[in-house]
Every structure is written in structure tokens, then in C-alpha cells.
Amino acid sequence: AQSVTQLDSQVPVFEEAPVELRCNYSSSVSVYLFWYVQYPNQGLQLLLKYLSGSTLVKGINGFEAEFNKSQTSFHLRKPSVHISDTAEYFCAVTLIIQGAQKLVFGQGTRLTINP
Amino acid sequence: DTEVTQTPKHLVMGMTNKKSLKCEQHMGHRAMYWYKQKAKKPPELMFVYSYEKLSINESVPSRFSPECPNSSLLNLHLHALQPEDSALYLCASSQRGLAGNTDTQYFGPGTRLTVL
Fold first, then answer.
1. Across the interface, do A100 and B31 touch by the CB < 8 Å criterion?
2. Size of interface A-B (CB pairs under 8 A)
3. Over the stretch B27-78, which tens digit does the pLDDT of each residue have?
4. How confident is the model at residue A31 (pLDDT cuts 50, 70, 90)?
5. Is residue A110 classed as helix, strand or coil in its secondary structure?
6. How confident is the model at residue B2 (pLDDT cuts 50, 70, 90)?
7. Cβ of B105 under 8 Å from any chain A Cβ?
8. What does B64-104 look like in DSSP terms, one character per residue?
9. Quick check: A103 and B45 CB within 8 A?
10. Interface list for B 19-38 with A (CB within 8 A)
11. What whole-number distance in Å separates Cα of residue A95 and Cα of residue A78?
């Protein structure tokens, strides 16, 4: 079965420092991977996705992620964070059930940016 | 436009009330989803509709009743809820929601539900 593990529940970072949020997946078949961000009291916003092709995926707000099949990882990175990046970040993988798709989310990583 | 709208934003209801949550999208998507999100937890899938037919029900209690009147609208009817049902209810949509497609789900802002 497909699942994702986010290795850090909380990541504190100073403003303008680089950050990496880690995500590992388990799957025996083709994977479609996503990163979503959730700002306080809001819904989920798509940051980026890997469906196929180039393993380096660029998303919104300066974020990027690299799909690494050998390490079964899809880590999210940003070279320089801002206070406004403070949010919950979810990694997710698509699972097929009964001919329909569902998203399976990791437990989330809370990114806190300190001035 | 990748907007999914949800109403109301907040809802407070008693355990004997009947209420409904509404979700709407105008992206031409044919798959729509309901998720429940408790505080500090990831969203959990409740229901999936694909081409207006219920395709996944994740063993949700019958006090939650979904309805998909057309391809743009998704409702969640609530009746006799319990305090533990208090959560953020998120709606999402995607192009087709079927196996073999590489869909992307787009989420609405959610309805914050409090059951007293």
C-alpha cells in the first residue's frame, strides 16, 4: 500500500535561512506525489507536484522538491524562507481504491520562521 | 481559475440540529471530495464522487450524508452529530478522479464546524 512519512513534526528556522522538509514514500507502483501548504485557519493550497518527467519540480512561492526513486523521497526545499512561510506542510501520495483516486497525507510538518 | 468555494465558513450546531455544508466549483471537474480535518492532524478522506456517483465511502457514520446534485455542487448533510465531530471540513475537486488519470486535487477553504 502507498503511504508517506514526514520525518519532522516541527521545523524551526530563522528568516532568510534555507529549509528542507523531508518526505519519504512507500509504494510498489508508479507514484504521484504532492506537497500542500496550509496557512492558519485556511484550506490546503497546492505547492507543487510530481507526476512524471523531470525529477526536480519547481512550485509556487520559491519552493522546489526533488523526486528520488532510489531513496523513495520527495523532500521540499526553499533556499531562503520568509516569515510568511510559517504554515503546516503536508506531503501526499495518490492511492487508487475501487477505481477511484484518493490522497494519502503524511502527518504534516509545522514550519516556524523566527525573525 | 482553480477556486473551490465552501459555505458557510463557520457553523455551530447542537446535537439535535440538521444542517448542510455546501461546496461549489466551476472548473469543469468531475470528481469531488469531502475531507475531515481535526486540529493538528492531516485531512482524512470521507467521500469521493466521480461523475456524480459516490465512488468511495470511507466507512463514515450515517449521520453524515453526502449529495452531489450536479457536477459543480457537493453537499454534506449533517444530522444528530456528536461533539467529537467538531472539525474543519474540507471540500476538494479534481478533473476525473479515476484510476489511470494523474489528477490534482484543489481544496476549498473549509467549514469550521463546532458541535455543542
1. yes
2. 69
3. 999 999 999 999 999 999 999 999 999 988 889 999 999 999 999 999 999 9
4. confident
5. strand
6. low
7. yes
8. EEEEEEETTEEEEEEES--GGG-EEEEEEEES--BTT----
9. yes
10. 31, 33
11. 27
